Each structure stands twice: as C-alpha cells, then as structure tokens.
Amino acid sequence: MTLFEKIIAREIPAQIIAEGNDWLAFHDISPQAPVHVLVIPKKAIPRLGEAAPEDVQLLGTLLLAVQEVARKLGLAETGFRVVINHGRDGGETVPHLHIHILGGRPLSWPPG
Ligand code: AMP
Questions:
Q1: Whole-angstrom Cα distance, residue 87 to residue 106?
Q2: Ligand 1 midpoint to CA 57 (Å)
Q3: Interval between CA 19 and ligand 1 midpoint (Å)
Q4: Digitized pLDDT (tens) for each residue of the chain, 112 residues in all
Q5: Domains in the chain: boundaries
C-alpha cells in the first residue's frame, strides 16, 4: 500500500478537505504556499504516465475536483496553480497520482 492509499483507508491521518466517490483532497503535510492541497484518485494509478485510456473519465473527474476544492478554499478569485510531478526529474516522491493545488500568494514562473 502506498502512503496515499493508507490515507484513503484512514490508516494514517490527514487533514481531509473534501471527498468524492473516486477522489480525496487533503492538505499537503509540507506546504509550499499558504494553500497547498493534494487531490488524489482512490484508484492506485502510480503516476500520470501510467494512466490508461479507461481512466479518461477519472482524469476529468479529478480536474473537476480541483475546481471544487479551489472554490471551497477561496482560490477561485485570486487564482492558483495545478501541478503534477512525474518521475525523477519531475520531483515525484509518492508513487500514487496526485494533483497539487497551490495558491494564497503570487507564484513565480518558471518553477525551479
Ligand atoms: P510529489 O513530490 O509531487 O510526489 O508530492 C508528494 C507530496 O506529498 C509532497 O508535497 C509531500 O509534502 C506530500 N506528503 C508526503 N506525505 C504526506 C502526508 N502524510 N500527508 C500529506 N501530504 C504528504
């Protein structure tokens, strides 16, 4: 079981913000912005590059979950950034697909 599967199973604690049938949103344990949230599928897809054509609806659901969570956290007006890290160079550290939502301050571009 990955760390995030344990969070889904409530085996380890997390600050959960919202949940759908197929996804869970919770605060990142090491926030890089005033608001830093992760949206994850309940299905254990290791990373974006391993999503399959059968996951197309789930991937769309995750983006709508991002929209819902961003609204809920008051980021819709001020803006936010959505990030998916894939693999070593992308900075992926947990092998369970997750979408970062970062906001609450102006974010620089390009990222480091
Ligand atoms: P990534 O580097 O894209 O794989 O992102 C993994 C993220 O998971 C990092 O931002 C970590 O801070 C976060 N993280 C690791 N463990 C936990 C945890 N127990 N609860 C919440 N977030 C976590």
A1: 26
A2: 24
A3: 18
A4: 999 999 999 999 999 999 999 999 999 999 999 999 999 999 999 999 999 999 999 999 999 999 999 999 999 999 999 999 999 999 999 999 999 999 999 999 999 8
A5: 3-103
User: How close is the Cα of 78 to the center of ligand 1, in Å?
Assistant: 24
Question: Catalytic site residue 98?
Answer: yes
Q: How far is CA 60 from its chain centroid?
A: 13
Helices (H), 26-85: 56-72
pTM to 2 decimals? 0.98
Least Cα distance to 34 among 111, 101, 110 occurs for: 101
**Hey, what are 66's tokens?**
């991002």
68: tokens are: 């819902």
- Which CATH homologous superfamily contains domain 3-103? HIT-like (3.30.428.10)
- Cα 52 from Cα 68, distance rounded (Å): 24
Residue nearest atom 16 in ligand 1 by C-alpha distance: 29
